[in-house]
Amino acid sequence: MSSHVSFAHVDTENAALVDEFLPVLKERLAGGVFIGGEEVDRLERRIARLHQVEHAVAVNSGTDALRLTFRALGIPRGTTGITVANTFVATVGALLSEGINPLLVDVGADENVDVAALEEAITPDTSVVVAVHLRGLPAEIAAVREICARRGVHLVEDCAQAVLASAGGVPVGAFGVAGCFSLHPLKNLGACGDAGVVVTNDDALAAELRLLRNHGLRDRDTVVRWGENSRLDALQASLLNVKLDHLEEWTRRRRDLAARYDELLADLPLVLPPRPEDRVHVYHRYSVMTEHRDALRAHLADAGVQTAVHYPIPIHRQPAARGGQLRIAGRGLAVTERQAGQILSLPLHPLMPERDLRATAREVRAFFESRPR
Length: 373
Ligand SMILES: Cc1ncc(COP(=O)(O)O)c(C=O)c1O
Prior knowledge:
Layout: H1 10-31, H2 38-50, E1 55-59, H3 62-72, E2 80-84, H4 89-97, E3 101-105, H5 115-121, E4 126-132, H6 141-151, E5 154-158, E6 166-167, E7 170-171, E8 178-182, E9 196-200, H7 203-212, E10 217-219, E11 222-223, H8 234-265, E12 279-280, E13 286-289, H9 293-302, E14 327-328, H10 334-340, E15 343-346, H11 354-370
Parallel strand pairs: 2-3, 2-4, 3-14, 4-5, 5-8
Antiparallel strand pairs: 1-9, 6-7, 6-12, 8-9, 10-11, 13-15
This protein binds pyridoxal-5'-phosphate.
């Protein structure tokens, strides 16, 4: 019997909140403030508090959060920014758009930056390390911070997938000079359109970001920098404020569902997501690894279970990379490439019924049990 387990969840989440959204939207429409204003300020205060930092600066997207951070830090064009190849393209695209040359390093078993490879890759030309917390699992960020501090390199965290994740009790975003979040509709805290935010403890950086996101305007009539328009609109901020009321509960639910998958899949020949004791994973994605990924994915599709692969083509293998702007660190990207052929994201979202999770786990088991040993 086919199961019909859907991978996407944006519609379900928004449908569940529609009765909370509507009065807020009515109020905003009547209020007439559509750019910035109290809802944006409130969102910034709440995100700063949740991530235990001094400042949160809302911008138009996670990509802008990264780009404007690099610019606000004054990272010189032509220098090197180190990151990984198994991330959403925006991590690398943001470096390129600010004239910073990406150097890609390999990852470890946790799919995040390999700390030893990173240390080896830093040269006097390196200006910034962008550490991605992929799928909501923090990278080994305390070690990365130590290396960056010792080598005199900025650390920017790409927290796009990791709202509320933490390492050693410290929320992500507070380790680097800045943490950049995407609030894209598909993220754990997702707007109904594009949105992003930068968190930082650095007063000067926050002030610079506030200028850059609004044409460099110090006040209505005085331009002190060449900036741009990357403001968050008030309607999105008010929807995000509604969603924030549910975020902690929904994150707990994600973690409970992940623990349930871990239990149900434990004895199968699959690599399950790592669970390092000192890191809180928020399961933006629940991703397993197997050499039989494509066959498993086809089996699940036949059984009505939707899955996804994040990301099937590492960035250095993308057609755009033929232009030659990307460099690969000395050790190569063997782990990244191997994992790209093995990863599979199973359905997981906070409002997912337990029966969908059980049906998915049952079909994964059926796949392995039907294979010749
Ligand atoms: C790891 C990562 N970095 C950056 C981004 C860019 O965010 P946005 O789509 O909001 O520009 C995303 C999400 O799309 C992402 O997953």
